[in-house]
Amino acid sequence: xxxxxxxxxxxxxxxxxxxxxxxxxxxxxxxxxxxxxxxxxxxxxxxxxxxxxxxxxxxxxxxxxxxxxxxxxxxxxxxxxxxxxxxxxxxxxxxxxxxxxxxxxxxxxxxxxxxxxxxxxxxxxxxxxxxxxxxxxxxxxxxxxxxxxxxxxxxxxxxxxxxxxxxxxxxxxxxxxxxxxxxxxxxxxxxxxxxxxxxxxxxxxxxxxxxxxxxxxxxxxxxxxxxxxxxxxxxxxxxx
Length: 240
Known about the structure:
The chain is built from eight helices and 14 strands. It is an alpha/beta fold. It has a single domain, classed as Rossmann fold (3-Layer(aba) Sandwich), CATH 3.40.50. Strands 1, 2, 3, 4, 5, 6, 7, 8, 9, 10, 11 and 14 form a twelve-stranded mixed sheet that branches. A hairpin with a 2-residue loop joins strand 2 (25-30) and strand 3 (33-40). Helix 2 runs parallel beside helix 4. It starts with 5 loop residues before the first strand and ends with a strand.
């Protein structure tokens, strides 16, 4: 597969597992790093890791290696709007980078997504909603946007709500290093702290729902036909 019409950048494979489980894979090098690409023409997908820097590296790799016409930041997001529930799809028109408050208009979709440097807890979610008028928060989209702009290609975001505006979360961020989540360390930490179990169980259930919904949205035939712009305009907010 030389080129792709659409490139999808996700953080973790579990976010898009149902979508790519049967896709052929290939490992390629870019700037001294190895990336695993899932290929199903005319789409290519890469899971770059958690956070802005990991997303930037993955976006640069897929753009330089596959030369897509459109790049999509896809994955989980935390809800900031009380109306958004687990499993709701958001295709935001505006992407804000919380690091410098810069805003990008994707030209399609509806709503505001803000990219924040860490996993936002309930208090931080409220601050982001009040300060920026954002509907959801993630950790990668703004970085993918910057790469798309630098290369002059179309950018869009497909985000699914995995935790709502008032959902307490376990201490996830302390187990993220260099864009990768230390699952073994997290499980060991939680295992001896039973007061964390309810939040972890809820997060696991919500993640399973979110992954299914996101994968179904990305598998839409209209996406495969490279008509994502039409899909976004027609389905600004899509619910489960």
